[in-house]
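Tutorial, part two.
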Amino acid sequence: MSERDLFVLRKRGTIVIDVKDRNLTEVTIPEGVVKLREGAFKDCKQLKEVHLPETVKEIGDAVFRGCTSLQSINLENVHSIGNNAFNGCESLQSISLSEDLDEIKDHAFESCSSLESVVLPTGLLSIGVKAFADCTSLRRIAIPKYLDTIKRNAFSGCNVLESFEVDQDNQTYTSSNGILFTKDSKTIVKVPEGKVLKNDDIPEGADFAEWGPFNETTIYNGICVLGKDMQYVDRRFANNQEIVKLVVPQQVKGINSGAFKNCKNLHEIIFTEGIDFIEASAFEGCDALERVKLPSSLTYLGAASFAHCINLKQINLPSNLRSLLMNVFDGCVSLTDINLEISFIAHPDLFDSKSFDGIDRSKCTIHVPERLSYGFSQYEVSVFNGFNIDQRVSPLLQPRNPIND
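Running the prediction step on this input gives:
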């Protein structure tokens, strides 16, 4: 069969814009073709093999999209791969990419569910949105030296992906224990969804990239990482004795009433900036909690939100908190330190009169930075009656002696 019988060609045979027989099982692109145009082989579901000449440099958008039987194609001479170019090629097992390829565009290899390995070229600069999403056989990714942009959800749904390995000379990313971080190691870009997490894999105080580490909430080895499906946390985790460590990424905006109530083995919570409220009894009865660092984005603590956390020793009240309801720490018999980061002058109605009920005040110290310790009204001082006051606090804040008043 001649080229004209098989292909629709343009520009003197240099561009393939369509194929006439969509039941092909194998195709050899003729020498001299430089581009496969958008959708040229889209939904050729019986196509198994494609042979490209060295002259082909560009594969347009969705060229092989939906070619569910495609198993083999050599891309070592292709300099540009378009959006959705191989989306849904579920039989494609491996790909070799050109060293001249500098961008893998959005959705390019999404849902290539048999893809087990891919070697990213040294000169690659950018990986697009969902470029490898739902590649459910992909186990490892090596991040090359010059890659500086990984867009959101590039590897989401890769549920057996175990590790990222980053070239040591890469200036944007690094990895630790298979987890992908920004170069300064402060922000987690991606936790491999197939990785079995250990308790120290996610460091205390780590922040997360905008889209969070997982599409769906995940629990591994006692570590619960809330996913994009969990903007507001409901009660599904209440009484869960499996959770030891909880990671709350920035897409989580609120924790609803009783969400983690009576999670007796919950020992550590890592909050990132973004959460706005924690409602009533959210962490009530979490016996193993010892220290909690609340993020500055938090504005609301509901009634009894940390009540009966019998081993809780330290907690802070962050700078943007606007409402602290009654009995927040009721029954926290081990509480010894509360760090105040709030300006009471600006927010005089912050505390409910029973906000600190249930604490053994004689054993608990209120720490107030000196910059916030001046100008408290007599009402506000009375809230702290019976507490020890950190020495940095102005004399006005020292507990009143009711006998001498």
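The helical segments are 3-6, 378-383. In part three we will examine how such features are distributed along the chain.
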